[in-house]
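Backbone geometry:
***
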Amino acid sequence: MKIALIGYGKMGHMIERIALQRGHEIVSIIDKDNLEDFDSPAFASADVAIEFTTPSTAYGNFLRAWAAGVKVVSGSTGWLNDHEADVRKACQQEGKTLFWASNYSIGVAIFSAVNKYLAKIMNDFPQYDVEETEVHHIHKLDHPSGTGITLAEQIVANLDRKTGWQMGSLTQPDGTVVPAADTQADKLTIHSVREGEVPGIHSIRWNSEADQITITHDAHSRQGFALGAVLAAEYTARHKGLLSIDDMFHF
């Protein structure tokens, strides 16, 4: 399979290494200094482009890749609020293809399945309240993390007593804590921490007067995310439309 990379930071380099190990060919690498290569024959020859960039550039990258006739796998977060409707229309009505996930780790996919199942169980036990904490490296621009939001939305969809999620406290890279604003009992609170080079830790806590149940996914490195992105590219090469982890894995 021919792969183009959009974004060549730490994730891009790791994706490149894993893709080559799995026998794929990297035909184009686009970073902020060579955006003109979106218009190159090399880029257009790709079966799939894997995009890991920033919230402000992701949607524009989708458009340029689609214009070249290239399917996209993206792990960029923070663009949904402004562009989700446009992306759905492009993929569902205009024949474009995007595989998007807030997290490509196979472990997170399994964790998400457990998260949804536990929320369904807890619907019958109102004595437990639930909150979430996500911890990431200091370079991450958005908060809460895309994975944190996805996990929260899974709980809300399966728990009648929560109507949505809300931002909790934010611990900044210098240790300063920005407290939560006015919080509501019917919303699931997501606390965010930015420290060091943490690849990603997501914890869901169910707390009652009697006890606490906690489930946690703790990424040891970015390698799991990179492997998942390459697996998603292999899947996307054979499928079309708006795709997700739920399409690729059936738990």
Notes: The radius of gyration is 19 Å. The chain has eight helices and twelve strands. The chain has a mean pLDDT of 95. The longest helix spans residues 106-122.
